[in-house]
Specification:
Blueprint lengths: L1 E6 L11 H4 L4 H15 L2 E6 L3 H11 L5 E5 L8 H10 L3 E5 L21 E4 L3 H17 L1
Parallel strand pairs: 1-2, 1-3, 3-4, 4-5
Bound molecules: 1,3,4-trihydroxy-5-OXO-cyclohexanecarboxylic acid.
1,3,4-trihydroxy-5-OXO-cyclohexanecarboxylic acid (DQA) binds next to loops.
Length: 145
């Protein structure tokens, strides 16, 4: 099974960006943890990051036929991007949305997600564990559906 992991805008700054909110791990360290977990789960993952909405939309379109599931932290596009939501809806790729921080415990403008209604589910607030549990949940979903 091939899983696409997408990180949205500003997540390339992890490690230096607001560490009290997002933790000390860099994006490369998070991806390394996911690679190890993927081996244990017996799946392959491909991790990508972009600061550009259209690039993320293109990658979701191109995932069809290659990837069986999508793990995504859309960053701030969570709260603004109907385009990413439409790409997920339009391709039908099973998607799990993850966030390092608990978006519902933060500013009210972070409480709405365009992605949540088109995702299988969302995990928010557990730091890097949101990604790990998100990957486990996505693989379990893909194997049982
Ligand atoms: C985030 C939460 C978003 O509100 C924020 O814009 C991010 C990161 C998270 O992982 O907690 O960039 O998606």
């Amino acid at each position: 099974m091939q899983i696409l992991v997408l990180h949205g805008p500003n997540l390339n700054l992890l490690g230096q960006r607001e560490p009290t909110i997002y933790g000390n791990l860099s994006l490369a360290e998070i991806n390394a943890q996911l690679e190890l977990q993927a081996k244990d789960l017996g799946v392959n993952i491909t991790c990508r990051q972009s600061n550009h909405e259209g690039v993320l939309v293109d990658w979701i379109h191109q995932a069809v036929g290659t990837f069986q599931g999508l793990l995504i932290n859309p960053g701030a596009y969570t709260h603004t991007s109907l385009a990413i939501a439409d790409a997920i809806r339009g391709t039908g790729i099973p998607t799990v949305e993850v966030h390092l921080s608990n978006i519902y415990a933060r500013e009210s403008y972070r409480h709405h997600s365009w992605i949540a209604p088109v995702a299988v589910g969302q995990i928010s607030g557990f730091g890097v564990a949101s990604y790990r549990w998100g990957l486990a949940a996505l693989v379990d979903y893909c194997r049982t559906h």
